[in-house]
Description:
With 341 residues, the chain is mainly α. The chain has 13 helices and 2 strands.
Amino acid sequence: NDVDLQLYAIIAVVVKDLVYSWYAKITPDQDFVEEVVRIVAHCTRALESRFRRVDFEGLILDEMPDLIEGHIHAYRVSHQSQHLPPVLIDPHVIYHNLVPHPALSPVPDPAVPSTAAKQQEHEAEYRQLLVQGALAVLLPTEDLENACLRTLVADVIADSILGNSVGGKVCEGWFIWGGITKLVDVVKARVERKATCEEMEIDTRSRLEKSGLLSEKGQNKEISKEDRRSTFSSAFWRILQYGFLTFVTIRFVVLGVITASSRPLRSRWTSKTWGSREVWPMEEGVEAPRPMLSFKILSVISVLLDLRSRMPWLSGSLALFQYQLIHGPFGLAATDGILDQ
């Protein structure tokens, strides 16, 4: 498919720049280069098969929002220092003390240039460990025992793909803003094209009206009639739209409640990933899935809007309502409940 073609094109460019540029000077043999491409392709296929078994509901709605919430809390705490110079501490230092990471330590200090070099070394070592751990899971046994081939593939992925492409370009602000700008331009072009078509359909005036040859009285009468007609038409279409939206909402809720009992249960045994969750007492190390309503995505929205400080009564009311839906007598939003399904 198109994704595989683009993926093989990227692999070909990376291998050409990092492997074939020096290997072609040694020997014209292509077996080694083809073996590197085969191993990288095998890793991508293994990743694809593993992605199909990932719980994307928990990953996108619970684990990723949990990381974002921790980042927001640490960022706000690090920038809310009550001290003044010379006691004031750099917010970067406070943040990295609250959320330590081996690849981002030590914090680069302009007064000590060696800290930036050490941080880059630690980041490169962390990428190597990350790739080596991934290859140990993805590669077949015979390729994993080949130390030369494993080292070369790890260097290509860690330095070229993760270091230069992802860390050097994709994570930079100019790349992110450029992607957002292109996306906005595409959406804006579609909206403007749609608005232009609607204006052409709405402009139904006669040629005399467009040229200004009609009398003012006739124009005023026509304008008043058009205003009354447009007011009635807009009110009619607005009522029709709201009625259709209400019907679709009721239909969605009724069909969801009816088909909830026929859906597969979420309370199947799953292996524990990370984070503290409620573990079933039957077997240690195995946990039951949490209710969808207790996922961290709602907590992140509350933190972003700062509801606890701006509207504590609303935050408390929503938390109480959530608790009653999950742990209440009916258990509507509990695991495998009606709302959860």
